[in-house]
Amino acid sequence: MPGLLLRDCRPWRTDGLTDLLVRDGVVARIGSGIDAGDAEVVELGGRLVLPGLVEAHCHLDKTLYGGPWRPHSAGPALADRITDERLRRAELGLPDPARVSALLETMAAAGTTHVRTHTDVYAGTGLTGVEVVRDAAARLAGRITVEQVAFPQSGILTNPGTAALLEEAIKLGVHAVGGIDPAGMDRDPVRHLDVVFGLAERHGVRIDLHLHDPGSLGVFELELIIERTRAAGLAGRVTVSHAYALGQADAATQDRLAAGLADAGITITTAAVFDFPVPPVKKLRAAGVNVACGHDDIRDLWSPYGSGDLLDRAMHLAYRSTFRRDEDIELALEAVSYGGARALGLDGYGLTEGARADLVVVDAETPAHAVVTRPPRDLVVKAGHVVARTGALSRPPGR
Amino acid sequence: MPGLLLRDCRPWRTDGLTDLLVRDGVVARIGSGIDAGDAEVVELGGRLVLPGLVEAHCHLDKTLYGGPWRPHSAGPALADRITDERLRRAELGLPDPARVSALLETMAAAGTTHVRTHTDVYAGTGLTGVEVVRDAAARLAGRITVEQVAFPQSGILTNPGTAALLEEAIKLGVHAVGGIDPAGMDRDPVRHLDVVFGLAERHGVRIDLHLHDPGSLGVFELELIIERTRAAGLAGRVTVSHAYALGQADAATQDRLAAGLADAGITITTAAVFDFPVPPVKKLRAAGVNVACGHDDIRDLWSPYGSGDLLDRAMHLAYRSTFRRDEDIELALEAVSYGGARALGLDGYGLTEGARADLVVVDAETPAHAVVTRPPRDLVVKAGHVVARTGALSRPPGR
Fold first, then answer.
1. What is the pLDDT of residues A365-384, one digit of tens each?
2. Could you confirm whether domain B55-344 is CATH 3.20.20.140?
3. Are strands A18-23 and A26-31 parallel, antiparallel or unpaired?
4. Under 8 Å CB-to-CB from A325, ≥6 apart: which residues?
5. A171 CB contacts (<8 Å, ≥6 apart)?
6. A37-88, pLDDT tens digit by residue?
7. At B95, is the secondary structure helix, strand, or coil?
8. Given A273, A303, A369, which is nearest B69 (Cβ)?
9. Would you tell me which residues 289-308 of chain A have a C-beta closer than 8 angstroms to some C-beta of chain B?
10. Which of residues 39 through 78 in chain A touch B, CB cutoff 8 A?
11. What rounded mean pLDDT belongs to chain A?
12. How far is B297 from chain A (nearest CA, A)?
């Protein structure tokens, strides 16, 4: 295919104006005055180029995105939401392939090139969600890549049969096994982690655990996960999502956990939703802990909010982190890009020569400016193909 | 002037589809099948009509809105931001009439019909800010109404000469006198309140105090303000902005303060910014306390964030309040409309026959849906005049 020459652009973390040549799906060259040859030339007039955004935590299988407004129907407690969802899933036809596709299209048009989604796996739903998400992802292939986590929303030990279903999901090709509140929900943190880490080790998949448990209970579970990750030699392959306890802990405990997480090679993924505690992003990054970010629920029975736009999510993360300075706000942007890429284990990610050509162009003076104003996406490219121009999806490649 | 007939619309808090006739600056009639007469007919196809939005707390005089991106330059402490602002105001030409006008235009196009802004009044700036804001407001007259609070950003007792300047500002026509952390900043809560309440009583202006002081100190100051408001008989004329201590307090203290605030007729205005504590909106409303909302800083030396769109601000308030249900999310919408109108003492506000015709039309299924998705403003009307259509300002009335 012919290449694409981005003329007069400013790639994030490259100084000054430059050209960027995309050819054969990769960033072939970055430099001034590149000869376009047969490549399509796009004049960018100094626009900012970001790497393709990486959604590190969402729940595509639950979404009602693009459908009629559904007022939130659950009571205030967590148990209310779990019960409400079980009751209303069938009534609303969830998981709904049309809704999943609609959300993925919005994400792709907004510059997201990779998604990690937690798909419910439990006795009530079996593997329907995994199949629906897989099929929707196939329809969007080439425009957005979707990786699934088999997610035991209702627990593993407390929901008999779930461990076997998680294993079946892995055989269907999910890239990670999930977990949820090993103590607070599943009532036996060590055995819960036995199952999750056991599956990961046997099948070579990654791990991404939901940890909402607060305070010292959550801190204890983080310690268990750190010890277990070290012992299993799974550095770079384990993520803890939410980790509210990390945001609640005192400074000394945060320091100790940050050192442990960095040493074990564990990613912390936050969504910065509602008023829930946000992990100390700046401290974690300074300690060398990878931090990723995602939406969590988007317009579903758990939350009526969410846009699918990762610059919007980065704004929420920066805002809740009270980041005012450009270099701090960029930490939030890093979480929805490089941080997510590290969590998902993406090879060849970034804006350097030889990297896969996944990129987003926006009209912003600095990366922080892009987070604050969330400008339209002028151009989205994935693996060298134009996915969207001025916010509208292009035809899929090869069709 | 000819009237305006909104055909097939859904005014908030009115059941079902109806017509709404605007004539002579007021809502002349609400009902089905109204005869348009010579009025312009606007077919709304079931769109939602909200009352004109009321920005209850911002700082127009500080804004850099619409200018080039200015990376935040202050250090992390409050004192750093105060020093940074003093140093950079002159360099950046603040207050800047063009920036104030640009922000007011954005606000008006987004459906804000009334603004309360806190204008710095202290030895360093004198009354320049009051005059700049007054002049910008005059240029936008008929499209957006601006009320100023004379705001002692650097304290009153600790910044000699400020009390006299506040009095001069009142003589220039500001509608309220401000205060700031009577204990934490001004070091003498009783004498600070003596000055503020003294000015308000002598000149018949309203009061709007910034209260960031945390914990039991902030609670004590709220008690002082409640006692003082009751003693002075100023029910309905006093606002406490931010009131972080109210968000931090235990439930019993919140209950006690809510009862006191309701009895004294004090408004709580929140901006729900960054990670700062948000007052318990639902509890306050249940106790009968008026709650208003505003942006606080918008793209200035204090904060690089802020859009000027009050639906966006309502989203932040609902989100930080963990409001999921429609009726809860509507409390945030109420804060940027009816709550603000009560704080400012606006007469004839609302969507009832005889009310002043200040209204905004959006394409949303429910009021909560409007807060979550923040759709474009299809039509903005102020005092019967069309201010904006599809987000673009109309020509000013009479020109």
1. 999 999 999 999 999 999 99
2. yes
3. antiparallel
4. A368, B71, B72, B73
5. none
6. 999 999 999 999 999 999 999 999 999 999 999 999 999 888 898 888 888 9
7. coil
8. A369
9. 299, 303-305
10. 68-69, 71-74
11. 96
12. 12
- Of the candidates A74, A274, A366, the beta carbon closest to that of B319 is on A274
pLDDT at A126: 84
The correct CATH number of A53-344 out of 3.30.470.10, 3.20.20.140, 3.40.1280.10, 3.40.50.300 is 3.20.20.140
Angstrom distance (rounded) from CA B372 to CA B366: 10
**CATH superfamily to which A4-51+349-391 belongs:** Urease, subunit C, domain 1 (2.30.40.10)
Output the six-digit token pair for A114.
């990779």
- Give B397's pLDDT tier (boundaries 50, 70, 90): low
Instruction: List, for residues B99-130, the tens digit of each pLDDT value.
Output: 999 999 999 999 999 999 999 998 777 899 99
Q: What would the two tokens of residue B297 be?
A: 């800083």
**What's the confidence (pLDDT) of residue A87?**
86
Instruction: Say how far apart CA B185 and CA B154 lie, in whole Å.
Output: 8
Tell me the average pLDDT across A338-345: 98
B106 to chain A nearest CA, in Å?
14
Tens digit of each residue's pLDDT (9 = 90 or more) over B11-50: 999 999 999 999 999 999 999 999 999 999 999 999 999 9
Residue A278 in contact with residue A320, Cβ under 8 Å? yes
Give the start-to-end residue ranges of the domains of chain A.
4-51+349-391, 53-344
Residue with tokens 């002349």: B28
Show the 3-state SS of chain A.
Answer: CCCEEEEEEEECCCCCCEEEEEECCEEEEEECCCCCCCCEEEEEEEEEEEECEEEEEECHHHCCCCCCCCCCCCCCCHHHHHHHHHHHHHHHCCCCHHHHHHHHHHHHHCCEEEEEEEEECCCCCCCHHHHHHHHHHHHCCCCCEEEEEEECCCCCCCCCCHHHHHHHHHHCCCCEEEEECCCCCCCCHHHHHHHHHHHHHHHCCEEEEEECCCHHHHHHHHHHHHHHHHHHCCCCCEEEEECHHHHHCCHHHHHHHHHHHHHHCEEEEECCCCCCCCCCHHHHHHCCCCEEECCECCCCCCCCCCCCCHHHHHHHHHHHCCCCCHHHHHHHHHHCCHHHHHHHCCCCCCCCCCCECCEEEECCCCHHHHHHHCCCEEEEEECCEEEEECCEECCCCCC
| pLDDT tens string B255-268 | 999 999 999 999 99
Question: Is 60 exceeded by the pLDDT of residue A399?
Answer: no
Of B183, B186, B130, nearest in space to B160 by CA: B186
- ipTM entry: 0.96
User: Helix, strand or coil for residue B64?
Assistant: coil
Predicted confidence at residue B90, as pLDDT, reads: 87
Q: Which CATH code is given to the segment(s) B4-51+349-393?
A: 2.30.40.10
Indicate the pLDDT class of residue A398, thresholds 50, 70 and 90: low
In chain B, what residues touch A364 (CB-CB under 8 Å)? 69
**Best mutation target, B84, B270, B305, to test chain A (most A CBs within 10 A):** B305
* Cβ-defined contact of A304 to B368 (cutoff 8 Å): yes
- Rg over alpha carbons for chain B, rounded to the nearest Å, is 21
Contact A304 B329 (CB under 8 A): yes
Quick one: tokens of A230?
């070290």
Helix (H, G, I), strand (E, B) or coil at B254: helix
Classify each residue of A325-347 as buried b or exposed e, where b means 16 or more C-beta atoms within 10 Å of its C-beta.
ebebbbbbbbbbbbbbbbbbebe
A293: which strand partners? A270
- pLDDT level of residue A397 (50, 70, 90 thresholds): low
Residue A277 has pLDDT above 70, yes or no: yes
User: Residue B399 pLDDT more than 70?
Assistant: no
